Amino acid sequence: MKCPKCQFDNREGAKFCKECGANLEVACSECGTVYDPSSKFCDECGSILDQEIDPTKPDFTSEANANMSQFFSRIFLVTQPCLRDWILKN
């Protein structure tokens, strides 16, 4: 399977590119079911599938992970004093 981002030739069935780490699984935009890139319709919901992977489309996975990490860090900082007080009282 050729990576749409860097054109590296990965083994068939690989989920991520061994060269650049790009996600090689293509999912239906309607229901999220992973499908074979040669499919024209999703066999789960019947939606028409994009036939071409756009390598210029940004991958938000790492950005989303960073945002979630920052979010939970902030929650911890806000709740830490309350938690400390509760522990000391009990």
Q: Strands, helices and their partners?
A:
Elements: E1 26-27, E2 34-35, H1 61-89
Antiparallel strand pairs: 1-2
Question: Would you mind describing this structure in some detail?
Answer:
The protein is mainly alpha-helical. The chain has two domains: 1-50, no CATH class; 58-90. The protein has one helix and two strands, in the order ββα. Strands 1-2 form a two-stranded antiparallel ribbon. Strand 1 and strand 2 (34-35) form a beta hairpin. The longest helix is centred in the C-terminal third of the chain and has 29 residues, at 61-89. The relative contact order is 0.11.
Q: Which descriptors would you attach to this protein?
A:
2 strands; 32% helix; 1 helix; 90 residues; mainly alpha
For the sheet with most strands, the description reads: 2 strands, antiparallel
- Give the overall average pLDDT: 79
Outline, from the CA principal axes?
A: elongated
Number of strands: 2
Distance between the termini: 58 Å
What percent of residues are in strands? under 5%
Oligomer: single chain
> Helicity range of the residues?
25-40%
Low-confidence stretches: none
CA gyration radius, whole angstroms: 20 Å
Instruction: Domain count, please report it.
Output: 2
DSSP summary: helix tally: 1
* Sheet with the most strands: spatial strand order: 1-2
Order of helices and strands: EEH
